[in-house]
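Contributing new records

If you add data, match the layout below exactly. Sequence lines come first and carry their own label; structure lines follow with theirs. Keep one chain per record. Anything else will be rejected by the validation script.
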Amino acid sequence: MRRAGLLTGFALFSGIYASAVVAQRTDAFVASRNHPAIDYSNGPVTDRVADLNRKLQDGSVRLKFDAASGYLRSALEALNLPVESQVAVFSQNAFQAELIGPKNPRALYFDDTVAVGYVRGGTVLEVAAQDPRQGIIFYTLDQKAAGDPQFTRNDGCLACHLSWTTLGVPGLMVFSTITVPEDKNAYASGFASDHRSSFDQRWGGWYVTGALGSIRHLANRPVSTASTTDAVKPEARELKSLEGQFDTAGYLSPHSDAVALMVLEHQTHMINLIIRMGWESRLAAYIDPLLPRSPGAGSNTAKRLQEAADDLVDYLLFVYEAPIPDKIRGSSGFAEKFAALGPSDSKGRSLRQFDLDQRLMRYPCSYMIYSNAFDALPDSAKNLVYRRLWKVLSGDDKDQRYARLSAADRRAIVEILRSTKKDLPDYFR
C-alpha cells in the first residue's frame, strides 16, 4: 500500500482470519494475534529496542540529534547496526510514501534482529525489532530534537505487516515493485521476494550497487507505469555507487549493497517462519496440553505443527534457492563484515560465509539458526525442527528436492552445527 507499512517496499496486503475457509489454511498461522496463547498486543517484550528504551529512560544511553539525518546515526550506534548494511528503495509503497522517490529513496539498515528505516526529511525513524517470543515489534522515533527521545510502539504497521505473505504473523518482507498505476492513491503492484525468487523478478523499485555481471534484474531504473508486468523487462544494470543518482547528503553510505539486500531478502522470510513455528506451538499447547508429549498422528493440530517444521527446515537449508546466474560482489564491505561475525568451528568454517558464485551461502544452512528467536522456540517446536533437520541432513529423507544438498554440504553443516550450536540434540553426534 502507498500509505502504510514499514521497512522496504513491504506492503500490499489485507486483513485475515475472515472465514472458516481461511481457517483451514495450513501454510500460515490462522488464529488471532491476541489469542490468550499469544497476546501479541499486550504481552511483555524483550526486544533490543525495548531494552534501549529502558536505557534511555535511566540515562545510561543518550541519543544525539544532528541536522543532516536527525537521530539516525546515533540510533544505529546505540543498536549496533552496521552502516555497511544500507540498502535503498525508492518505490512509494511504504510509510511516508509522499517523500520517497528516485531522488529521495528510503534507506534501511539492519542486522539479524533489528532494522531501521530512514526517509530524508521524514518525521520519524521507522524501526522493526524481533522479540524472541512475540515476533516483530514495530516502533517509530520522532525526528525532532528532544531531551528524552523514546521509541514508540506502533501496531498500525500491522495493516501491511500481518498478512498471508508474512505467514499470518507480524513479520517482514522485501517487496519488488513491478508497476505503479498513474492514480496516486492506487495500490502498488508486485510481490515479496526472497532467496527462492528468480533474479529477473527481484529488486523492482530498488537501487542495487556492486558487481552483478550479466544478471538480469529490475533494479536501478524507474518503476514502470505500464499496465501489465509483460512490459517490464529485466536488464543487466550495474551501479558501483549511488553517487550521481541523487544527492546523497543525509545518507550514511553511498551504497545500496547487493549482498546486503540478498541477506535481507533471505532473513525476512526466515524470521517469519520462526515466528510462525513458535506461535503454532504455543497455540497447540493451549488447545491440547498433552500434545507436545504425545502428538496424535491423526491430529490436525499435530499436522499443522509438522508442516510448519517442514517448511522452516526446507527454507533453512535453502532447498528451493534460485541459483545465481553470474558472480555477485557487493560494494560496501558488508559481506566481509557479516562473514566475520561467526561463530566458526575449529576449521574456521561458519554458516555466515558466502559463496556468491552460484548460491548465497557457502554452507547452505541459515545463520538464523543461532538467533534468539530460534533459541526461544518452545521445546516441543524445537524438537520437531531438529528431528526434521536431522532426517534431511542424515540422508534418511530420500525426496528428490533434497538431492541438491551434496553429501559434502550435509557433512560440513552437521560438523559446523556440532561445534557451534549449544543445544544441538545428541543424535546429531
